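> example.struct
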């Protein structure tokens, strides 16, 4: 069947808007009657090595926080082009997990083949269930995002995150870290995500903010904890779509370099839900403002009320459980990239020099 834009100007806009629906599909597939429908057992697994490229690698970075915090399982994350050549030692009691929208990325496939005889199990999280990566895995978990046409990955990213969150919960249960009540609470939180996403997609003055971002030469994204990989993803998406130089940084690293770039011309996008690390991120944000950096604070209503004064702009997100905030905050990252690309007049669905699937090295 031919995939149409269904009234949207671009596939990217359509795919951003589809996220609440496809994410609900993925949840229905993997969660039934308060049980996780995942044919894996993490008992005895001592380490997880996660490998991917591009946006999929940022999904792995978010998942590392989840596997470590919820399941106490040590995780290593690497990009496939590095992993495959550094020939890392892998323990026979570990698992390797590969994340790929297309399932055909050459470096990720080569990394999978490298890990094949060395680890106990090869698991993949893919959007294309018939792909090479899916076929060569011991277990392939589909993300059920539907066909993604826009080169810049959007709905595949949030569906990857959702499947990885469910896997982290399964690991937590198998490793005795999460009882039935705890699981039920996290599953209820996950079930609320599509609604929170609808809410997030409905708000925000993105076109107006984007008009101003489009004037910038450099843009910084800051985040802490599981919001750090979302800052990386925000910067990647923005540079891919708008061709503006953007960098994502862990807030705590600000003083170790990027603070030298701050002046009144550099917008700094701070992704800071009101979680346990909020005050620390806000203090980094104030260091930026003291140097006349233009801060766009993305937080929930309470965070914006507490720390929004003096910011150049704010975007208010619905209140979300800490565990799931990275999935929700992926949306403003996508929308900023999309609208800035529109303001710049670039080819959003097919940015120059990029390919949807990189099947050659
Ligand atoms: C390309 C695409 C990205 C994608 C990356 C990994 O760079 O433009 O959107 O994140 O490849 O692709 P995969 O299909 O393995 O997820």
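> example.seq
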């Amino acid at each position: 069947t031919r995939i149409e834009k269904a009234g949207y100007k671009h596939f990217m806009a359509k795919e951003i808007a589809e996220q609440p629906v496809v994410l609900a599909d993925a949840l229905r597939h993997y969660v039934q009657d308060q049980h996780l429908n995942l044919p894996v057992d993490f008992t005895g697994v001592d380490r997880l090595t996660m490998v991917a490229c591009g946006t999929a690698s940022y999904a792995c970075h978010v998942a590392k926080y989840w596997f470590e915090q919820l399941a106490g399982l040590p995780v290593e994350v690497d990009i496939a082009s590095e992993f495959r050549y550094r020939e890392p030692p892998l323990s026979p009691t570990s698992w390797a997990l590969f994340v790929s929208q297309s399932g055909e990325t050459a470096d990720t496939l080569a990394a999978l083949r490298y890990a094949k005889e060395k680890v106990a199990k090869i698991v993949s999280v893919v959007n294309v269930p018939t792909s090479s990566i899916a076929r060569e895995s011991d277990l392939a978990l589909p993300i059920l995002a539907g066909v993604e046409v826009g080169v810049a990955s959007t709905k595949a990213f949030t569906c990857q995150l959702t499947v990885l969150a469910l896997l982290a919960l399964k690991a937590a249960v198998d490793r005795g870290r999460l009882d039935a009540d705890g699981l039920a609470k996290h599953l209820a939180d996950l079930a609320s995500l599509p609604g929170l996403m609808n809410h997030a997609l409905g708000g925000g003055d993105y076109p107006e903010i984007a008009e101003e971002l489009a004037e910038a030469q450099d843009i910084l994204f800051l985040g802490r904890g599981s919001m750090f990989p979302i800052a990386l993803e925000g910067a990647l998406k923005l540079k891919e779509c708008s061709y503006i130089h953007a960098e994502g940084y862990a807030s705590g690293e600000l003083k170790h370099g990027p603070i030298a770039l701050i002046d009144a011309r550099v917008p700094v996008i701070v992704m800071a839900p009101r979680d346990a690390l909020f005050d620390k991120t806000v203090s980094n944000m104030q260091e930026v403002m003291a140097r006349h950096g233009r801060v766009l604070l993305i937080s929930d209503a309470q965070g914006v009320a507490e720390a929004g004064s003096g910011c150049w702009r704010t975007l208010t997100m619905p209140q979300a459980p800490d565990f799931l905030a990275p999935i929700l905050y992926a949306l403003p990252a996508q929308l900023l990239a999309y609208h800035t690309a529109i303001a710049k007049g670039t080819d959003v669905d097919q940015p120059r020099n990029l390919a949807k699937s990189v099947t050659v090295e």
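> remarks
The longest strand covers residues 294-300.
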